[in-house]
Amino acid sequence: MTITRIPHLPAxxxxxxxxxxxxxxxxxxxxxxxxxxxxxxLRHRGTRNSPNPPxxxxxxxxxxxxxxxxxxxxxxxxxxxxxxxxYMISGExxxxxxxxxxxxxxxxxxxxxxxxxxxxxxMRKLQKVPLLRDDGQIxxxxxxxxxxxxxxxxx
Length: 155
What we know:
By secondary structure, this protein is of the alpha/beta class. 33% of the residues lie in helices and 24% in strands. The chain contains 5 helices and 7 strands, in the order H-E-H-H-E-E-E-E-H-E-E-H. The strands form 2 sheets. The chain has a 5-stranded mixed beta sheet. A two-stranded parallel sheet has the order 1-2. Helix 2 (32-43) packs antiparallel against helix 3 (53-66). 32% of the residues are buried. This is Regulator of nucleoside diphosphate kinase.
């Protein structure tokens, strides 16, 4: 029997397995606050303003299942809600923003209630993972830098 592989972009459950494989070596870590924040977003329909709420809800639930807990205080290289993240998506330049649990868009924030924010939360500096885009394309996102928000740094 001959098996022929046809190159294609992963879709649906294929994306999930690709996401899990990228997490195996480095994994995702969630603080207790981040886990509770994600659960709150899901419970109170905080993803309803996203372009594809069912897809985002599935990604967030999957992230909760595959992520391990992290000791507190979180490592400074871990992307947590409230941290300022610099990241790069394949084929684009570096960008940055404040990772936020807010369900409504705020200028300069990266919402956990978005595919990008849901992917970034729990990553560490220099970690690369697949990023599912709203249009169905799959890119790669890498975290370049993580810093506490200016509010947290002053405290």
